[in-house]
Design a protein that fits this description.
With 160 residues, this protein is mainly β. The protein folds into two domains: 66 residues, SH3 type barrels; 72 residues, OB fold (Dihydrolipoamide Acetyltransferase, E2P). The protein has a five-stranded antiparallel beta sheet with strand order 9-8-7-10-11, covered by helices on one side. A hairpin with a 4-residue loop joins strand 7 and strand 8. It starts with 18 loop residues before the first strand and ends with a strand. Belongs to the eIF-5A family. GO terms for molecular function: ribosome binding; RNA binding; translation elongation factor activity; translation initiation factor activity. InterPro entries: IF5A-like (IPR001884), IF5A-like_N (IPR048670), IF5A_C (IPR020189), NA-bd_OB-fold (IPR012340), Rib_uL2_dom2 (IPR014722), Trans_elong_IF5A_hypusine_site (IPR019769), Translation_prot_SH3-like_sf (IPR008991). This is Eukaryotic translation initiation factor 5A.
C-alpha cells in the first residue's frame, strides 16, 4: 500500500434519497409522484388499454404540492416512476420577522428559522391575524425533495 493520504470530497448529502421508484401501474389517486422534477399529489389517474406495442399507458394529473400548479405525465404502466418522500411535521409558531421568515419551535426545544411565510393568501392572512391576536398557533410544514413549506395551520387557543 502507499503511504499517501487520500481525501475525498463528497458533494452529495448523506442519508436517504429524495425519491423512490414505484411501478406506474400501482400509483393511485391521492398518492404522490414526481412530474417534471416536481413533487405532486395525484388527483387523477387513467389507464389506457395495451396498444400494438404492448404497453398499457398511465395518464397522471398531479398538483404540485408547493406551488399548486397542475402537471401531467403519461408513463407505460410497467415502467417505474419516481415517488417523492413526503413528510409533514407540526411546529409551534414563535415569531414572524419583518422580512417574511417565521421562527418555529421544534419538538426538541430548538428553533427553526429558515422557513418563509406561505405564498397562499388565505393561509398567510390566517397566520398573520392569529399571531397578531396573540393566539398559540401550530403550523404544519410539508417537506419533499429538499423543499419545505408551511401548508396548514392549527389554532391551539389563546396564549396564557
Amino acid at each position: 500500500m502507499s503511504d499517501e493520504e487520500h481525501h475525498f470530497e463528497s458533494k452529495a448529502d448523506a442519508g436517504a434519497s429524495k425519491t423512490y421508484p414505484q411501478q406506474a401501474g400501482t400509483i393511485r389517486k391521492n398518492g404522490y409522484i414526481v412530474i417534471k422534477n416536481r413533487p405532486c399529489k395525484v388527483v387523477e389517474v387513467s389507464t389506457s388499454k395495451t396498444g400494438k406495442h404492448g404497453h398499457a399507458k398511465c395518464h397522471f394529473v398531479g398538483i404540485d404540492i408547493f406551488n399548486g400548479k397542475k402537471l401531467e405525465d403519461i408513463v407505460p404502466s410497467s415502467h417505474n416512476c419516481d415517488v417523492p418522500h413526503v413528510n409533514r411535521v407540526d411546529y409551534q409558531l414563535i415569531d414572524i420577522s419583518e422580512d417574511g421568515f417565521v421562527s418555529l419551535l421544534t419538538e426538541n426545544g430548538n428553533t427553526k428559522d429558515d422557513l418563509r411565510l406561505p405564498t397562499d393568501d388565505s393561509l398567510l392572512t390566517q397566520i398573520k391575524d392569529g399571531f397578531g391576536e396573540g393566539k398559540d398557533l401550530v403550523v404544519s410544514v410539508m417537506s419533499a425533495m429538499g423543499e419545505e413549506q408551511i401548508c396548514a395551520l392549527k389554532d391551539i387557543g389563546p396564549k396564557n
